[in-house]
Amino acid sequence: MDFGPYIRDIENFPKPGVVFKDITPLLKDPEAFQKAGDALLAFTGNMKIDKVVGVDSRGFIFAPMLAEKLGAGFVTVRKSGKLPYTTVSESYDLEYGTGTLEIHADAIEKGEKVLIHDDVLATGGTAQAVCKLVEKLGGEVVQCNFLIELTFLNGAEKLKGYHKKVLLQY
């Protein structure tokens, strides 16, 4: 299925000069939503996955579904101050600023195989920070899945050494 027609551009969001890739048209179409989930699941092949990490906030859409279908646990990585328990944090750069991400300190056990999912790979700062968080807890990142990659921002450079799969590239 061609998912491109289900992604719309929103100019100057969240700030002037940024073209935001809006996935909500894909999400509201039941067939496109299901097929996108199936395609993301197919990226894992027959990998052993213990945990699927979803990145705040749009990574929370597909990651729980992937976890359920893989028989894995689902773990949230959130922006600073949003998780209620003891956390581990990592700061990062993104295309329109900086931020800090956190994960619960007990979310991943040493040696667990982890799939990271987010909606967009842009500059790679967010994904790189999530990989570092997983590794700080002793997990092994087996793959990073994305719905969209903005190739002109060269985010894949920050993920060298990690397996990456993407549905759509711009």
Could you describe the 3D structure shown?
Strands 5-6-4-3-7-8-9 form a 7-stranded mixed sheet, with helices on both faces. The protein has a two-stranded antiparallel ribbon with strand order 1-2. The protein has a single domain, classed as 3-Layer(aba) Sandwich (Rossmann fold). β7 (113-121), α4 (125-136) and β8 form a beta-alpha-beta unit. The model has no long low-confidence stretch (mean pLDDT 96). The relative contact order is 0.17. The longest helix has 13 residues, at 30-42. It has helices spanning 24-28, 30-42, 59-70, 125-136; strands spanning 8-11, 19-22, 51-55, 73-79, 87-94, 97-104, 113-121, 140-149, 164-169. The chain is an alpha/beta fold and 170 residues long. The protein is built from 4 helices and 9 strands; from the N terminus they run ββααβαββββαββ. The chain is globular and about 40 Å long. InterPro entries: Ade_phspho_trans (IPR005764), PRTase-like (IPR029057), PRTase_dom (IPR000836), UPRTase/APRTase (IPR050054). Residues 45-148 form the Phosphoribosyltransferase domain. Keywords: Cytoplasm, Glycosyltransferase, Purine salvage, Transferase. GO terms for molecular function: adenine phosphoribosyltransferase activity. Its EC number is 2.4.2.7.
